[in-house]
Amino acid sequence: MKNDNSEFIIGRHPAIMALKSDQEINKVFIQSGLKSDAISQIIKLAKEKRLVVSNVPKTKLDQMSDHQNHQGVALAVAAYHYATIDDLFDNAAKHGEDPFFLILDELEDPHNLGSIIRTADAAGVHGIIIPRRRAVGLTSVVAKTSTGAIEHVPVARVTNLVQTAKELKDRGVWLFGTDMKGTDYRRWNAKGAVALVIGNEGKGISSLLKKNCDEMLTIPMVGHVQSLNASVAASLLIYQGFNSRHPL
Length: 248
What we know:
The chain is α/β, with parallel strands linked by helices. The chain contains nine helices and ten strands. Strands 7-6-5-9-8-10 form a six-stranded parallel sheet, sandwiched between helices. A four-stranded mixed sheet has the order 1-4-2-3. Helix 1 (12-20) runs parallel beside helix 2 and helix 5 runs parallel beside helix 9 (230-245). The chain starts with 6 loop residues before the first strand and ends with a helix. 38% of the residues are buried. It comes from Limosilactobacillus avistercoris. This is 23S rRNA (Guanosine(2251)-2'-O)-methyltransferase RlmB. Pfam families: SpoU_methylase, SpoU_sub_bind.
């Protein structure tokens, strides 16, 4: 599966990570007059792949990146490939581990998705599942925010999250959701095959998906603001999963 739109990878570190990966790259754009070790490395990697390197004015890169912080670099890439559910299970098997997946229920902010992918890569998550509709997909902003992790964490995009949740349960995966009322997340034992469900930034987890969760987890808070940014909450929960799966 692919996105319908062409995409750009922007930023020096994401560009280097992409050039070192199997990502299909069409062309490399460098801001005219820029010189640095990172720029030299990007040009070297591009030449090794026999890619066309174009020196362009900053205004063209601003336009390509939708005025994001491109750091003088943009890669024109083929639309991002999405994994299948089987790919996610295969990734866990390749590592010789029980599956540890994330299900993101209609996340809308590309910065949240990029940050979650970055944490998922750091904590050994084997794959992420997102819905096809009403949610952000794999975009250039997501790629830049993930700082290259998008190349290492497979993301599956499915038509129906509830049906996918039922499929995961049929395949032996336990589903853990997040809610204001639930078990203290510090008690979560994520050993075995598990999937962590993170809800939408405003609405949380949909009621139908919540019904398919085996247990709900909550993050205790004592401050005045009784909510956390979606990517921050996800990071805390992901690392509790990591802690229980890899105890000291």
